[in-house]
Specification:
heterodimer; A: alpha+beta; Pyruvate-ferredoxin Oxidoreductase, domain 3; four-stranded mixed β-sheet; 6 helices; globular; B: alpha/beta; Rossmann fold; seven-stranded mixed β-sheet; five-stranded mixed β-sheet; 38% helix; 19% strand
Chain lengths: 161, 515
Amino acid sequence: MKKKVYSITFGGIGGQGILKASEICAWAALYAGFHVKKSEVHGMAQRGGSVESHVRFGRNVSSPLISVGGADFLVCFHHDEHERLKSFLANEEGDLIEYLDKTKDVIDDPRCLNTCLVGVLSTKLPIKQDCWIKAIETVFKKKVVAINKKVFLNGRKMVQS
Amino acid sequence: MVKKTPTKKVLLSGNEAIAYGAYEAGLSVACAYPGTPSTEILETLARFSQIDAQWSVNEKVAFEVAVAAAISGKRSLFACKHVGLNVAMDPLMTSSYTGISAGFVIVVCDDPGMHSSQNEQDTRWVSIYSKLPMLEPSSPAEAKDFIKEAFKISEKFDTPVLFRMTTRVSHTKEDMALGRREVPKQPPFQRNIPKYVMVPGNARVRHVFVEKRLEKLKALAERTRLNKIESGSKKLGFITSSVAYQYVREVYPDASYLKLGMTYPFCDEKIRKFAKSVGKLYVIEELDPFLEEHVKTLGIKATAKDPSFRTGELDSTCISAVIKGKAKREKKMATRKPRLCPGCPHWSTFAALKKLDLYVAGDIGCYTLACLPPMSSLHSCLCMGAGVTFNEGWHKGAPRKKIVGVIGDSTFVHSGITGLINSAYNKAKGVILILDNSTTAMTGGQQHPATGLTIRNEPTKKLILEDLCRSCGADNVDVIDPKNLAEFTELVKKRVGEDALSVIISRHPCKLLKR
């Protein structure tokens, strides 16, 4: 039987921190010992255009891109982009869109939206909390690590409570 | 610098992997002009103090400096995007004849799907045309491994090596281990007129060498581990390369593969052997039928993609349609289009040009986005530098129209200067607007000669654009901030009405500039 590969699609518009969110996820998977591939598009997408990033991890990952109908989870940062990206989902339980509006209750700074949604996502994946924390320490500049850890944990609590 | 994990594994993009791999291989000199999807290679290399890294004026210059460094005895690298290689084709073609001394690798990043490019050319054809070997990694981790192999091949066979990436390999990130830097012994710098002076008498001799080298490289292609047979089910076999390999592997994990990491010269014997070993044979590749056509010339029966799939990227979703020989079905998913940033100085510039109802010859940069609604006020984009030359050419067919050319500051230095000299020399008229936002904005804000800073943000001699334009022969050179919209509009209107060759430097820094 084929070994499980986890596939997560991140999507939103330029400037929302989508690439950072997928970066945290990819590093966390790396720290957990998985083979990881993360795909992203630079260039024109940075000018406020649609941005999507795919993260896949498991024992052995081939394609860096997720097939239509192949995503275990979809993390959207914008409702418009959700319409476009939901075809990636394998099943509806993997859709984390319900958390997009809820994040407003737990974060003050919209710049932390990405880390908060990663907190939500983290509860659904076979990666331990310390790997996530290490990933946050890796991808953020020192002065914002503390705030991002806090937001991440608040994101986790949204699901667990 | 990337932080190391306890297992020494790091997450690197394909472009970063090339930089780290080349660093470990003892790379000393690296040159490039920025261009998506290749830019991060030099940005990463510039972080290593042992490497002499530079943003060059353009790709031709970058190529020449790098290949000369290799001839002088230092392992060197030139990086560019696919269309950037066109600019460097002149030195590239003859460097195949001269060969090198220390290793020299030409990294070229193709852009299937045109994420940020003006065409979708397939650089694999350059390997045939130039008679140079080509390596093609299928993933970032492979890129790091293959780049070391590229330097070895370069030195062993006295040849520049083409190293082809695609956007998807360049911008995918993968976990991989870091190694130690090992600098090979430097060969001596020598005068060698027959090898390095390509006058006809010497070049004839070198062409014979090139043909012999190609035969030796063919033998290498047959035995190298880069061209790997992966045996699985004998019913189904795939000949494939680059990221297409990963997409097919995803869908058919149990099939047999001939995975080509060295796509040129072709490994004919390996291809024949593999073809015989499998029932049904497919050739799967992105863009042009490069492998497909060659396999067919060997008299081998193989199935390849429908020609409609020669445009755009492949992915694992479309592989089953490709295998069945079906035509491509365009997915129409509306995406949010890129646009100029809020507060971008180009908004003001193009507001004026639109108001004056001008014909605007465009160029390559953020300002190319002015072709999109609501502005729709940029009317050509062909290649780097053509904003200047199109102004001249358009005036020939439409002398009474109100025509201007626009070009960015970095693009002007890249290849606009020669066009301006040409216009002055040939008594052309018109207005060239240099949209000077004091950076190479489109690719994320790189330095260039007119910013006065190097790739490492160190101060250097600063090119003064207004002095340069006067020297080129412009009758008028004005410098103005486009945010003073009324004044700016008035100036453009005045200059367009004159019988002169004028340059207006529209100067306001990019909003994203970190200073």
